[in-house]
């Protein structure tokens, strides 16, 4: 149906009704012009809110990034001191910023593979004819729709030192490493713990994507492989994995974007800490860039600096998306 | 016989795997509920089920700590935002699916390109605009900035493209105006996707804690997640109350998910699977 519509469109376009090429006097406006007017009337509420609150802010953010915004000033239209690229120059010399980029990469390097493995494992478990499969599927998906903040707060309880249930479980099997400071209080375990909580929350989403990809694989491929004597593991690596590759690449892309935007989980669980001493400077073990933007803006109220930082975040996102797209196009 | 025994073994293993996975994935929520029913002094007891369950925590967060008010705010903000966002996306989806107009492809391309922009990007400039408009600490600041939902528009358009154009043409021949065609044909035939988008936008606004935190600093306007974040930083030690507040925060979405999971799952994964 849509394809058919497309052809009609192309056929109509060169017609005499185009805007501005309407020659003779006509009693009524052309159909296309009328259609355009009604179309934009239907679009108006959407486009106006889009223009004011989504399109304009992207450009306005650049304006802020190029200006010095005084912390006490609330009149931020006009009256700002133009500082050109000083915010960006400061940013590139900011150890805390580069550290946050490093922590974001670390976060991504943990959460992307862990998320893929968890999602794929759940999908493989569900890809069987069993009773109750639908109930399990719902159970795995549900955390994905719930609030990250709440999930984070609950995990702070589970991870807490001395009394947290996970800390106690570890103690009961003889591991007391986490007893004193808790999982989130130790630099080495803080980031993996944040990631673990997040993977459990988000795995249901990837699971659905993998499941539908797996169910699209023709059964005959597996039967042929079985006749040839391929072991289940061989069948998984030679058939399933290559055929779900588009989903895996998609998971890498959204995982990367998710890492660049990571905020609520850090806010709820660690507040960017615990601090590590790196060459005499205290730097947070979960100090990701998304959290640094928030902290700069909300806690320190440095709007220009936060805007500059978010522009670097945008540039990183675009570069990664472009690289991924190249990669996707050549691989799939 | 051997074959059936292998099948039974396989099935037992699968069920074990599924059950262990479900326990792990749902444990945080289970622990949240259990802790919320414990006496404050018992917050860290390891009992799986509290021996003396109490509703006192819920009563206290709802009345003494204002969560009843936060809940009302959340309902107002999330449902009106969902209503308007869905309405805007339905109207816009209709014209992108069914009409020809000047600049259509360019506008659509521009809208889709905005999906690449990280959400953190908007926070600072949106705050500046809201501030300049004098909208700080108001429902409209919490609702209006996120009403243009590009992903929702995309879902709408995809769905509406499958509705036969002949139906619309026939109605027009019968003398129906544009608005009538939209209201009497497009909307009724798009109810499943409208319901999906309503649920997804409701969920988004209910959970959109960062934005609500930024535009409100008076307690009477806190939504549940903002109230919870404030409670967390003010009363770090009141674990049972914090868990009761958490329960209140996730309950509406969990309930919606329970009754309408198909819409949630399809709506959330549709974009990824078709795109």
Task: Give the helix/strand layout.
The complex is a heterodimer of chains A (332) and B (275).
Chain A (H helix, E strand, L loop, with lengths): L1 H11 L18 H35 L1 E2 L12 E2 L3 H7 L2 H32 L6 H13 L2 H12 L5 H8 L14 H29 L3 H9 L4 H12 L1 H17 L2 H6 L5 E4 L2 E4 L4 H11 L3 H29 L1
Antiparallel strand pairs in A: 1-2, 3-4
Helix pairs in contact in A: 2-14, 4-8, 4-11, 5-8, 6-8, 11-14, 13-14
Chain B lengths: L1 H35 L19 H8 L3 H32 L5 H10 L6 H14 L5 H5 L6 H11 L4 H9 L4 H12 L1 H17 L1 H7 L8 H11 L4 H36 L1
Properties at a glance:
heterodimer; A: 332 residues; mainly alpha; two-stranded antiparallel ribbon; disordered N terminus; B: 275 residues; MetI-like fold; 13 helices; 75% helix; globular
How would you describe the overall organization of this protein?
The complex is a heterodimer of chains A (332) and B (275). Chain A has 332 residues and is mainly α. Helix content of chain A is 70%, strand content 4%. Chain A has helices at residues 2-12, 31-65, 86-92, 95-126, 133-145, 148-159, 165-172, 187-215, 219-227, 232-243, 245-261, 264-269, 289-299, 303-331; strands spanning 67-68, 81-82, 275-278, 281-284. In chain A, strands 1-2 form a two-stranded antiparallel sheet. A two-stranded antiparallel sheet of chain A has the order 3-4. In chain A, α4 crosses α8 (187-215) and α5 packs across α8. Chain A is globular, with a radius of gyration of 26 Å. Residues 1-24 of chain A have low confidence and may be disordered. Chain B is an all-alpha fold and 275 residues long. Chain B has one domain (69-270): MetI-like (MetI-like fold). In chain B, 75% of the residues lie in helices and 0% in strands. Chain B is built from 13 helices and no strands. In chain B, α3 (67-98) packs across α10 (191-207), α8 packs antiparallel against α9 (178-189) and α10 (191-207) packs across α13 (239-274). The mean pLDDT of chain B is 88.
